[in-house]
């Protein structure tokens, strides 16, 4: 029988039967010592699985039922076992692969904190202890807040499956996210960086092109690293953002069309200078055997750039330019700052250019950059009002209105003679 593995543990595709099949182990029977195995091509309603994802959901439910009634009864289930065998397989079916990988380390932090503690023994005090630990450990407020929210969701899933009666985390105050500020470069700082790069060197030419592309388009890090030359239309002077790079290293990567938001698939217009910089880099690539339609734009080896490399490039030239360093995503913020502070571009246009799901997202992240964006209003109203005042008061106060006056006391003629 030709069985093809899937990304889900215990879920396979039977090529001959053209059906999805589940084959899982439910551990060892504590009485007989035999392994409990489940092998089926149908769900609880005796219907064939419609997809690999549906089959995996079936697996999660079946394991939950076994753990509650078999060797891992609810009273014995430890937190780390629940996370590994229940929550992670479930969570993986609800988010995109890159989101799962991004959140995995945080979930491990939570799992390791509670470890072998039984689910039923996690009470309000333990939850509060975890909250205090997050505050004191040294994480950024936004990261700590995210971990605590994730912990709440884990316990909510345990409640949903019947391992605990209620979620004690709901009785503990959530952690504030704080104000996350992403450092960025101003126009002058960006110009100082470019002035340090010698484009006669192939690698430095790549660095020059990469920094320009990010600063002048505001693309997400993995959107730009996924670009092929066929995604750039030099005649129309625009880039088609339609892929995202899922990458661990230069040997393990995937160019995916599964973008962060539905609006992330977009066209970005290019200015003439950026077009010429990209043309020059493409010509340079051709000299070293690249520059074809399906070659990565940001590459000089044929392999895509990785985020850590981009960060090192930024740090190197920031030091040479004697300015502060920024994160790779700081180049996206730099682009927005440039559009707002130099041209006062309206938020809707910026939102579409960035590929945000809504203008509200853009405003929430970048509203603080509009601090001086109303200068044109001040310039417009300048000198339009005739500011004048009366030389004497025309108001006669009545009633209880009273103004205390600083007056000089009257001096009588008698006092004057005495003096």
TrEMBL record:
<dbReference type="InterPro" id="IPR002104">
    <property type="entry name" value="Integrase_catalytic"/>
</dbReference>
<keyword id="KW-0238">DNA-binding</keyword>
<dbReference type="InterPro" id="IPR011010">
    <property type="entry name" value="DNA_brk_join_enz"/>
</dbReference>
<dbReference type="InterPro" id="IPR004107">
    <property type="entry name" value="Integrase_SAM-like_N"/>
</dbReference>
<dbReference type="Pfam" id="PF00589">
    <property type="entry name" value="Phage_integrase"/>
</dbReference>
<protein>
    <submittedName>
        <fullName>Site-specific integrase</fullName>
    </submittedName>
</protein>
<comment type="similarity">
    <text>Belongs to the 'phage' integrase family.</text>
</comment>
<feature type="domain" description="Tyr recombinase">
    <location>
        <begin position="180"/>
        <end position="379"/>
    </location>
</feature>
<keyword id="KW-0233">DNA recombination</keyword>
<dbReference type="GO" id="GO:0015074">
    <property type="term" value="P:DNA integration"/>
</dbReference>
<dbReference type="InterPro" id="IPR044068">
    <property type="entry name" value="CB"/>
</dbReference>
<dbReference type="InterPro" id="IPR050090">
    <property type="entry name" value="Tyrosine_recombinase_XerCD"/>
</dbReference>
<keyword id="KW-0229">DNA integration</keyword>
<feature type="domain" description="Core-binding (CB)">
    <location>
        <begin position="78"/>
        <end position="159"/>
    </location>
</feature>
<dbReference type="InterPro" id="IPR010998">
    <property type="entry name" value="Integrase_recombinase_N"/>
</dbReference>
<dbReference type="InterPro" id="IPR013762">
    <property type="entry name" value="Integrase-like_cat_sf"/>
</dbReference>
<dbReference type="GO" id="GO:0006310">
    <property type="term" value="P:DNA recombination"/>
</dbReference>
<dbReference type="GO" id="GO:0003677">
    <property type="term" value="F:DNA binding"/>
</dbReference>
<dbReference type="Pfam" id="PF14659">
    <property type="entry name" value="Phage_int_SAM_3"/>
</dbReference>
């Amino acid at each position: 029988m030709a069985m093809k593995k899937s990304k889900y543990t215990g879920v396979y595709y039977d090529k001959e039967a053209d059906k999805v099949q589940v084959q899982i182990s439910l551990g060892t029977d504590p009485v007989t010592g035999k392994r409990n195995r489940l092998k089926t091509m149908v769900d609880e309603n005796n219907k064939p699985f419609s997809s690999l994802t549906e089959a995996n959901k079936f697996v999660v439910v079946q394991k939950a039922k076994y753990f509650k009634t078999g060797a891992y009864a609810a009273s014995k289930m430890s937190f780390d076992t629940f996370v590994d065998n229940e929550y992670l397989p479930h969570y993986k079916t609800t988010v995109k692969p890159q989101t799962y990988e991004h959140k995995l380390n945080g979930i491990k932090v939570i799992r390791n904190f509670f470890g072998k503690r039984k689910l039923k023994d996690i009470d309000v005090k333990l939850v509060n202890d975890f909250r205090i630990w997050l505050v004191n450990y040294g994480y950024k407020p936004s990261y700590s807040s995210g971990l605590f929210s994730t912990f709440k969701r884990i316990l909510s899933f345990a409640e949903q499956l019947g391992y605990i009666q209620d979620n004690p985390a709901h009785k503990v105050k959530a952690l504030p996210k704080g104000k996350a500020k992403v450092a960025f470069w101003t126009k002058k700082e960006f110009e100082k960086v470019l002035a340090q790069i010698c484009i006669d060197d192939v690698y430095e030419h790549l660095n020059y092109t990469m920094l320009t592309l990010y600063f002048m388009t505001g693309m997400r890090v993995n959107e730009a690293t996924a670009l092929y030359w066929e995604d750039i239309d030099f005649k129309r002077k625009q880039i088609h953002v339609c892929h995202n790079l899922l990458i661990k290293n230069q040997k393990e990567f995937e160019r995916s069309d599964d973008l962060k938001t539905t609006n992330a698939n977009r066209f970005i217009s290019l200015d003439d200078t950026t077009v010429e910089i990209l043309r020059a880099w493409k010509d340079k690539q051709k000299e070293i055997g690249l520059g074809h339609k399906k070659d990565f734009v940001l590459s000089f080896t044929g392999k895509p750039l990785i985020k850590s490399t981009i960060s090192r490039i930024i740090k190197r030239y920031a030091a040479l330019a004697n300015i502060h360093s920024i994160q790779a995503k700081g180049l996206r913020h730099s682009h927005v700052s440039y559009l707002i502070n130099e041209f006062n571009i309206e938020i809707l246009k910026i939102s579409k250019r960035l590929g945000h799901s809504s203008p509200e997202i853009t405003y929430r992240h970048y509203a603080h950059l509009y601090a001086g964006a109303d200068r044109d209003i001040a310039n417009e109203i300048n000198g339009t009002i005739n500011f004048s005042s009366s030389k004497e008061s025309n108001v006669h106060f009545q009633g209880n209105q009273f103004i205390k006056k600083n007056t000089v006391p009257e001096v009588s003629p008698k006092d004057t003679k005495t003096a």
